[in-house]
């Protein structure tokens, strides 16, 4: 089943998905009271305002490459250097009013859109293949923007969940998230979940973004399980003894789990086939933090 709606593949489509997700964070922020900004979210240690601070801080760094000198305490949720890096922007704005942080994000989004489109007077398209900085290392601009869109949409959903205002589950950001999840699903099943050879695992996402990803697990030359994507148009040799397991869940449930928000038992899902394999896959579905 082709994914629907499909994730944007061209650079202008990806820029628009990025803009929509970031604007959604801004719009949600404008609707927040002081009490709303203080609400805890599913991201450990972060409030609604902290989520906005993270987005504005990282987008500012993407433009300038400079980080303020801020002492980050040893919070329990800061577990590695990347976590400490992203915490800097949150700590810097810890005593700033939420509405001021939202206004800052509005300014930064306008600047980023000029960077990504060339501005209103642009005569040539932006080179989407040029290499830019990201927290995970240098990447081509189009790949970096895909990562940023996925990340910002994830934090938009964190804010929506905390405020009780669901939405944008059929947006470009949602489609990007599901598309990236499907692309890494073979590794998650075979290596992270260590599902043994002889198993076929299918993930059925029921919507609003709909799609299906499948993995046939075989033993590779190094003796480790290897995931072969199904539904890719490439034929593979199966085995009549292969065990099939299908996991079915909504876009919200799958993306929350893949973002590491809550446990397997916090989402609704069903399985046909080997429920032990299904749970093992869901427990190891996290690829965003």
From TrEMBL:
Keywords: Isomerase, Pyruvate. The keyword Isomerase applies. Residues 19-160 form the Mycothiol-dependent maleylpyruvate isomerase metal-binding domain. One of its GO terms (molecular function) is metal ion binding. InterPro entries: DinB/YfiT-like (IPR034660), Maleyloyr_isom (IPR017517), MDMPI_metal-binding (IPR024344). SUPFAM superfamilies: DinB/YfiT-like putative metalloenzymes. NCBIfam families: maleylpyruvate isomerase family mycothiol-dependent enzyme (TIGR03083). This is Maleylpyruvate isomerase family mycothiol-dependent enzyme. It comes from Knoellia koreensis.
């Amino acid at each position: 089943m082709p994914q629907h709606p499909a994730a944007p593949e061209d650079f202008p489509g990806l820029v628009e998905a990025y803009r929509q997700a970031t604007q959604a964070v801004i719009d949600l922020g404008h609707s927040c009271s002081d009490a709303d900004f203080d609400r805890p979210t599913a991201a450990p240690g972060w409030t609604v305002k902290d989520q906005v601070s993270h987005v504005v801080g990282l987008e500012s760094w993407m433009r300038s490459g400079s980080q303020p000198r801020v002492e980050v305490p040893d919070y329990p949720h800061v577990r590695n250097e990347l976590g400490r890096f992203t915490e800097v922007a949150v700590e810097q704005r810890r005593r700033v009013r939420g509405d001021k942080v939202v206004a800052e994000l509005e300014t930064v989004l306008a600047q980023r859109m000029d960077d990504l489109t060339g501005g209103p007077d642009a005569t040539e398209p932006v080179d989407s293949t040029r290499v830019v900085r990201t927290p995970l290392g240098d990447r081509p601009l189009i790949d970096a923007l895909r990562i940023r869109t996925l990340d910002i949409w994830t934090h938009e959903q964190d804010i929506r969940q905390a405020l009780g205002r669901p939405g944008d589950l059929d947006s470009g950001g949602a489609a990007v998230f599901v598309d990236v999840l499907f692309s890494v699903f073979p590794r998650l099943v075979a290596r992270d979940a260590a599902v043994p050879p002889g198993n076929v695992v299918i993930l059925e996402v029921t919507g609003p973004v709909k799609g299906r990803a499948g993995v046939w697990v075989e033993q590779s030359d190094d003796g480790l399980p290897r995931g072969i994507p199904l539904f890719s148009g490439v034929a593979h040799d199966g085995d009549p003894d292969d065990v099939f397991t299908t996991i079915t869940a909504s876009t919200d449930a799958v993306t929350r789990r893949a973002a590491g928000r809550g446990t397997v038992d916090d989402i609704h899902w069903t399985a046909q086939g080997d429920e032990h394999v299904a749970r093992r896959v869901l427990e190891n579905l996290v690829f965003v933090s």
